[in-house]
């Protein structure tokens, strides 16, 4: 039983120390305030102590800048004052020279242990002055609070002191102090603005769909000829067989086919005719029997049927 009680007490003490934290625990955050506007910041350290139900002894706000460092005593003449019940800080008419560090320190005690601890929270106060080159990245300009509009700074003098204030000129679809409130009917205006682009794509899609439906309606059913075409076996994959016209022409040398003339055997009639001497008298021209009659009927000169032998002269002697 004593062991169980000891373990329970030890667990409670560990949990208590892990909950209250240590001395001088601090959190730092950045807060942006538009030029010429007011702000209301809560003390995060006080809120954390309040959630743990610990006893708060004292809360103190301090302000540090490049020129000075002061502890805010909650005087009504100062630009920064804080509430004594909830300890939230209020700033009025913030200008560029008011950029600095606001720190809230909370002194509290742990009732069972009767030990005092300090917890603090720091706020880096930054003024938004439409300068998009400072504290900005590709996606967002932290120094420009205007969401959908143009950022402008207007200067004036109040009691001989220069005073600047930031204004936002919103586009047609948005309104509000920082152009972050959408007007009614914005969706229809955006749709009408891009209606020409939407209409172009819609008409193009309708035209392609019409051509597709037209081709599908006029297309005939495809008939397979696999069963009707004979099987030729494996198709060769050699280009010279598939495309004979593309073959490279080559010259093939063949053996000569000339054969010398052969002498006819003795007693052959062809040999006897070759051995006979040529005739010395020209052959008699045979005239068809009907040719003279045809020429006489046409009034031509009659043809003489007698043929005279023409002697052939002897060859010249060498």
Question: What's the arrangement of secondary structure elements?
Answer:
Blueprint: H1 2-20, E1 25-34, E2 39-41, H2 44-51, E3 55-64, E4 69-71, E5 80-82, E6 89-91, E7 100-110, E8 115-128, E9 149-158, E10 161-170, E11 174-175, E12 181-182, H3 186-193, H4 195-218, H5 239-242, H6 269-275, H7 291-297
Parallel strand pairs: 1-8
Antiparallel strand pairs: 2-6, 3-4, 3-7, 5-6, 7-8, 9-10, 11-12
Tell me the CATH architecture of the domain at 19-128.
Sandwich
* Overall pLDDT level: 76
Alpha carbon gap, first and last residue: 167 Å
How many helices in DSSP terms? 7
Count of beta strands: 12
Protein name: Ig-like domain-containing protein
Short description:
This protein is α+β, with helices and mostly antiparallel strands. 24% of the residues lie in helices and 25% in strands.
Tell me about this structure:
By secondary structure, this protein is α+β, with helices and mostly antiparallel strands. Among the domains are: 19-128, Immunoglobulin-like, CATH 2.60.40.10; 144-194, no CATH class. It is 24% helix and 25% strand. It is built from 7 helices and 12 strands. It has helices spanning 2-20, 44-51, 186-193, 195-218, 239-242, 269-275, 291-297, and strands spanning 25-34, 39-41, 55-64, 69-71, 80-82, 89-91, 100-110, 115-128, 149-158, 161-170, 174-175, 181-182. It has a 5-stranded mixed beta sheet, covered by helices on one side. A hairpin with a 4-residue loop joins strand 3 and strand 4. The longest helix has 24 residues, at 195-218. The model is unreliable at 3-23 (pLDDT under 50).
């Amino acid at each position: 039983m004593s062991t169980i009680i000891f373990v329970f007490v030890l667990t409670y003490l560990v949990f208590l120390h892990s909950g209250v934290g240590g001395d001088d625990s601090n959190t730092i955050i950045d807060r942006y305030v538009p030029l010429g506007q007011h702000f209301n910041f809560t003390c995060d350290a006080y809120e954390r102590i309040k959630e743990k139900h610990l006893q708060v002894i004292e809360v103190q706000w301090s302000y540090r800048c490049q020129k000075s460092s002061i502890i805010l005593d909650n005087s009504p003449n100062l630009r920064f004052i804080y509430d004594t019940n909830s300890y939230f800080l209020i700033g009025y008419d913030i200008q560029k020279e008011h950029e600095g560090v606001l720190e809230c320190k909370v002194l509290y005690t742990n009732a069972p242990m009767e030990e005092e601890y300090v917890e603090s929270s720091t706020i880096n106060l930054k003024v938004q002055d439409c300068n998009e080159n400072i504290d900005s990245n590709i996606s967002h300009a932290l120094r420009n609070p205007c969401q959908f509009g143009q950022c402008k700074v207007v200067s004036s003098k109040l009691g001989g002191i220069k005073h600047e204030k930031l204004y936002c000129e919103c586009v047609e679809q948005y309104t509000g102090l920082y152009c972050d409130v959408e007007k009614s009917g914005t969706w229809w205006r955006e749709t009408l603005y891009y209606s020409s682009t939407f209409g172009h794509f819609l008409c193009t899609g309708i035209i392609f769909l019409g051509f597709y439906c037209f081709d599908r309606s006029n297309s005939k059913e495809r008939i397979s000829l696999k069963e009707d075409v004979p099987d030729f076996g494996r198709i060769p994959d050699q280009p010279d067989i598939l495309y004979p016209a593309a073959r490279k022409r080559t010259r093939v040398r063949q053996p000569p086919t000339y054969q010398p003339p052969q002498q006819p055997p003795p007693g052959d009639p062809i040999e006897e005719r070759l051995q006979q001497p040529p005739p010395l008298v020209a052959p008699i021209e045979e005239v068809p029997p009907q040719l003279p009659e045809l020429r006489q009927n046409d009034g031509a000169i009659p043809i003489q049927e007698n043929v005279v032998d023409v002697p052939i002269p002897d060859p010249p002697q060498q």
